[in-house]
Amino acid sequence: MEKCIGILTAGGDSPGLNAAIRALGKAADYKYDMHVIGIKDGFRGLMENRLMRLPASELSNILTHGGTILGTSRDKPHRMPVGNKIMDMTDVMVDACIQHHIDCLVCIGGGGTHKNAYRLMQKGLNVVTIPKTIDNDISMTDCTIGFDTALNIATEAIDRLHSTAHSHHRIIVVEIMGHNAGWLTLGAGVAAGADAILIPEIPYDINQVAKAINKRRKEGKHFSIVAVAEGAVAKEEADGLKELLKLKEEAKKKKEIKAAEEKVNKIRAKHVDHTLKIAKQLEKLTALESRVTILGYLQRGGSPSPADRLLATKLGTACAKLIEKGQYGYMVAAKGDGTEPVPLEKVVGKRKTVNTDHPWILSAKDLGTCFGD
Ligand code: F6P
Does the reported pTM lie above 0.90? Predict the structure, then answer.
C-alpha cells in the first residue's frame, strides 16, 4: 500500500513555507507514489482532526505565496489549552495519526516545533522535520527557511531609513525580530551599513553607543542608524538575567523554580519597550533628535526570496526521499549545496546563536561599527 504522509506547519509563519509544502507534496506524489494529508493550524489541528487531502494537483500556484496554506499555531502537544484546562495531548495526537493511517508526520517549524515533534517521536510516532524560522537559530543546519527573505526586507528597510536619518540629522533606532538570536539584526545591520548594531549575544553599554554617535558627529556626520535586535539586552540587564537563569537551573524544588521563573518574566516584561528606551537614552546623551521604527511582522510577510524558494524546494524534496526510504526521526538540514539528515535528538534544545567572533562582526568592527561593548 502506498505510504501516507501527514504534514503540518507550526510556530510563526515565514516566507517559503508554501514552497516547502509544494516540494514535499509534489515529489511524494509524482516521484514516490506516496500521498499527502495536510493538517490545519499546527498541532492543534492534529488534535482536533482537522485534516485535508493534499494531492499534487492542489499544490500549483503556491510557490510564491507568503504564509502557509495550512495555517499555523504555537500550541504545544504536551501543554495544550483545552477548554479552561492545560492538558497533555501527545497520546491523542499519536492516536489521531494511527486512525488516519499516517505513516510519517512531517513538522515544518522552528525550535519549539522541533521539540514538539521529538516529544511525539518519543511516544512512538514516525516524524521528520524541516527547519524554518526567520530567526535562523536552529542548530545543525546551515540556514532555515524564511531567514533570507526577512534579511532582504530588514536590509531594504534600513536602506530606506537612511534617507530620513540623513536629511533630518536624526538618530533612527530600528528594531528587528529574531527572538533571542542576533542573526537578522547582524546580517541586515552589516548589509545596510548601520552605525551601531545591538544583538543579544553582545550585551551593550548605552554610553558606548552614544560615544560612537558623538564621534561620528565630530566627523561631520549628523545622523546615525542603530539596528537593535528585539532580544538585545543592556549589560546590567544581562547580568541580572544570567544570575536568575542559573538559579532556576540549579533549583531543585518546584517552588524555587517558580520563584526564579517569575523574576525572569518580570525582567522580560520590562524589556518590552527597550527600543523606545534606547532612543530616549541616546537623545539625552547625544542631543540628536531620535526616532524609532519597529519592523515587526513586515519581516515575515510576502513572497519568499529566490534563495528561500530554492532552500524550501531542496529540503522538501529531500524530505520526501527520506520518508520513501523509511528513515524517520530526522531533521532535513541544509548542508552546503545539498541536504543532510540529522537525528532529531541532536537538534532539540539547542539554539544556534551568533558567535561573538563571527566574520560579519569582525568585518563590521574593522569598519568602525559599534556593537555597544
Ligand atoms: O520566531 C519568529 C518570530 O517572528 C520571532 O522573531 C519573534 O520573536 C516571534 O516570532 C514573534 O512571535 P509571535 O508571532 O507569536 O508574535
Answer: yes
